[in-house]
Amino acid sequence: MLRKLLEALKKLVQSSAVYDLSQLNDPLAVQIEWTPMRCGDSGFTTHKLVHVHADRVEFRPSWELKLFLGFHLFAGVLVPAAFVAIMLLVGEIGSRVVFLVLIPAVTGTLLMTIGGMIYYRHSAPIVFDRYQRHFWKGRKAPNEVLNISALKDACKLGDIHAVQLIPEYCLFNKPPYNRFELNLVLHNGRRINVIGHSNPAKLRKDAQLLARFLHVPVWDAC
Predict the structure, then answer these.
(1) How far from chain centre, in Å, is Cα 38?
(2) Contacts by 58-61 with C-beta closer than 8 Å and gap 24+?
(3) Three-state DSSP state, 211
(4) Burial of residue 209 (number of CB atoms within 10 Å: 0-12, 13-18, 19+)
(5) Structure pTM?
(6) What digits encode the pLDDT tens for the residues 65-96?
(7) Is-cis flag, bond preceding 61, omega within 30?
(8) Residues 152-205: pLDDT tens digits?
(9) Please, what sign has the CA dihedral across residues 192, 194, 195, 200?
(10) Which letter does DSSP use for residue 123 in this model?
(11) 3-class secondary-structure state, position 214
């Protein structure tokens, strides 16, 4: 019940934010949603825009994300090794060796699994390719399926109308933080989430570069 009340409060706060959509001078801007498409994600920069070549740009994992993964992998190895080393030094291994090793081994495996899952999720290709004339987000490209509609996060580049930037206050995180979202707006009003993180300056810079690549405007509500 409390969570439902907080969700309602969050939606009320977000819906009360006023954006001067008239300055965009585009009727589609007042027809689409200006609320976040995803909730939470990460409190640090997860992606950066990379210019692969003249006809292709990609969002790739940032050094912050790689550092986050490296910490989990390092901790996953260090925790059991350090625990066993301490037990050897104090002479507490004995007949309880299996039990004593099992706990840190499980902890280490859990840390590595969490890091691996997070990296797998955020390392999925996010590609804008003018040669293939498509955008896709995921491990399957449009040319690998019979119908692009089978892909949830994919579209033709020619269908992209604008790049949308919107803020979100992550109320349920401890501590709460401000997150910012980059979405694609299609001609038919559909939106596709591309990325989201907590650094508005970097997100705005990437949005401008992406918009120039696509020859579309940036609708910035951040």
Answers:
(1) 9
(2) 58/125, 58/126, 58/127, 58/128, 59/126, 59/194, 59/195, 59/206, 60/126, 61/119, 61/122, 61/123
(3) helix
(4) middle
(5) 0.76
(6) 777 776 666 666 666 666 666 666 666 555 55
(7) no
(8) 999 999 999 999 999 987 665 556 668 899 999 999 999 999 999 888 999 999
(9) negative
(10) T
(11) helix
The CA-CA-CA angle for residues 14, 16, 19, to 5°, reads: 90
The pair of structure tokens assigned to 33 is 């949603």
pLDDT surpassing 80 at residue 114: no
Torsion sign across C-alpha atoms 53, 57, 62, 65? negative
Q: How many residues does the chain have?
A: 222
Distance of CA 159 to the CA centre of its chain: 23
Joined together, the tokens standing for residue 127 give 């590609």
* Residue/partner pairs of 171-178 with CB below 8 Å, 24 or more apart: 171/6, 171/9, 171/10, 172/3, 172/6, 172/40, 173/40, 173/43, 177/43
Token digits of residue 218: 């940036």
The mean of the pLDDT values for the chain is 81
For the chain, percent helix, then strand, then coil, each to nearest 5?
Answer: 45, 25, 30
Q: What is the mean pLDDT of residues 39-48?
A: 73
Q: Report strand pairing: 47-53 vs 56-61.
A: antiparallel
Decide: helix, strand or coil at residue 74.
helix
* DSSP H stretches of helix in 42-157: 63-90, 97-122
